[in-house]
Amino acid sequence: MSPLLEAVDLHRHYSVRTGGGLFAGKAVLRAVDGVSFRIRAGQTLGLVGESGCGKSTTGKLALGLIPPSSGEMRYDGERMPAAGSPAWRALRRRLQMVYQDPLGALDRRLPIGTQIAEPLVIHGIGAVSERRDRALSIMESVGLQRHQFGRYPHELSGGQRQRVVLARALITEPRLLVCDEPISALDVSIQAQVVNLLLDLQERLGIAYLFISHDLRIVRQVSHDVAVMYLGRIVERGDAENVFARPAHPYTRALVSAIPTVGDKRERILLGGDPPSPANVPPGCSFHTRCPFATAQCRSEIPTLQPQDDGREVACHRVRETALRLVA
Ligand SMILES: Nc1ncnc2c1ncn2[C@@H]1O[C@H](COP(=O)(O)OP(=O)(O)OP(=O)(O)O)[C@@H](O)[C@H]1O
Ligand SMILES: [Mg+2]
Questions:
Q1: Is residue 66 part of a domain?
Q2: Residue 236 lies in a domain
Q3: What is the DSSP code (8-state) at residue 207?
Q4: Does this model's pTM top 0.85?
Q5: Beta strand 176-180 with 208-212: parallel, antiparallel or unpaired?
Q6: Residues 254 and 107 in one domain
Q7: Percent of the chain with pLDDT over 90
Q8: Which of 64, 93, 110, 212 is most exposed, with the fewest beta carbons within 10 Å of its own?
Q9: Model confidence pLDDT, tens digit, residues 309-319
Q10: Which of 281, 312, 273 is nearest to 299 (CA)?
Q11: Which helix (H) or strand (E) covers residue 253, if one does?
């Protein structure tokens, strides 16, 4: 069975200006640089990595909102149609996005019920009364009250607003939601509610998620699989529980060891400084400038994702030696 969504060697490069005045020049910024993944129906792929590593760009590529510079997105085994084409617009019903900032995603001047029903208008689904009924029923399923239909966004709490955003994404019966930091802007006490709602919706409706977040604890909680990105590339991917319990790539180990209650207490890999710029990616393994295990090979040869005994894939020349050190 083909996966619901498949990314095949996606690249997204931007031409950017560097320097200024006499030193002005152009560089290629590699926002996404050879990313492949699969998401099965009803499953969640978590995407993690530091700020600027290409997570949101990957999310936009996944929805076909931006075209790849090279590589291919496939939905249900078929190449994603070009953004804006009639075929793509028809597909967009099934692929929706939930952003970080619910207030920014909503129109302050319109009642929430109207906004929840709006995608039905855009896609020409149902008559006016049917749209209203669908909006009311989807409001209930995300835990909003029917009488809130006429309320405005500013009259709701942060958690309720994110429920409105979710209801609007769900009303077209999508098969996949790209959730880009869906809970980062919410109060910690509300985060758990929204996470539980996402899990519950997945169980009831069989929706797949591409779940992008800085918060590794939440990614671990919601994801079946996880992909760890560094400077536009995936450096480790596999079963989420396995990757978080026994991270193999030195970068994943650094990320995991930074989580107070999750990291392996036997080791701490501290990440010094910021990642290099994606407009100036180091040669070889792009992580070598921050990796405590780097050798001459790491400085010259780009490692590719290699399958490991437990089914995960890791892009690291030294994974065998350093993983042995970990269990010793
Ligand atoms: N339209 C664009 N033009 C030029 N550079 C871009 C563009 N969009 C993104 N980038 C660059 O691509 C890189 C990846 O950006 P992206 O937004 O995907 O990162 P991210 O992992 O989502 O980061 P964050 O965690 O901060 O949201 C960044 O260096 C960003 O500046
Ligand atoms: Mg982002």
A1: yes
A2: no
A3: -
A4: yes
A5: parallel
A6: no
A7: 75
A8: 110
A9: 999 999 999 99
A10: 281
A11: helix 250-257
pLDDT tens digits, 263-298? 455 567 777 778 899 999 999 999 999 998 999 999
Residue minimizing CA distance to atom 8 of ligand 1: 57
Helices (H), ranges, 7-127: 55-62, 86-92, 102-105, 112-122
List of E strands, 66-194: 70-75, 78-79, 95-98, 176-180
Number of domains into which the chain is organized: 2
Distances (CA, A) of 197 to 40, 231, 318, 325: 20, 32, 40, 40
Which residue's alpha carbon is nearest to atom 4 within ligand 1? 14
Q: Is the pLDDT of residue 322 over 90?
A: no
Structure tokens at 132: 């209203």
What is the strand order of the sheet 233-239 is part of?
A: 95-98, 176-180, 208-212, 44-48, 225-230, 233-239, 313-314, 306-307
256 lies in the same domain as 195: no
DSSP β-bridge partners for residue 238:
226
What spacing in Å lies between the alpha carbon of 255 and ligand 1's midpoint?
20
Least distant ligand from the CA of 50: 1
In a domain, 157, yes or no: yes
| Residue corresponding to tokens 């207490």 | 265
53 lines ligand 1 (CB under 6 A): yes
Whether residue 211 sits in one domain with residue 264: no
Nearest CA among 10, 38, 79 for reference residue 233:
10
What is the domain extent for residue 123? 5-13+29-226
The verdict on 198 and 254 lying in the same domain is: no
CB 5 within 8 A of CB 74: yes
pLDDT bin (cut points 50, 70, 90) of residue 194 is confident
Q: Classify residue 117: in a domain, yes or no.
A: yes
pLDDT band at 189, cuts 50/70/90? confident
Which ligand 1 atom sits nearest the alpha carbon of residue 54?
Answer: 18
Give the per-residue pLDDT at 327.
47
* pLDDT, position 212: 96
What's the CA-to-centroid distance between 23 and ligand 1, angstroms? 24
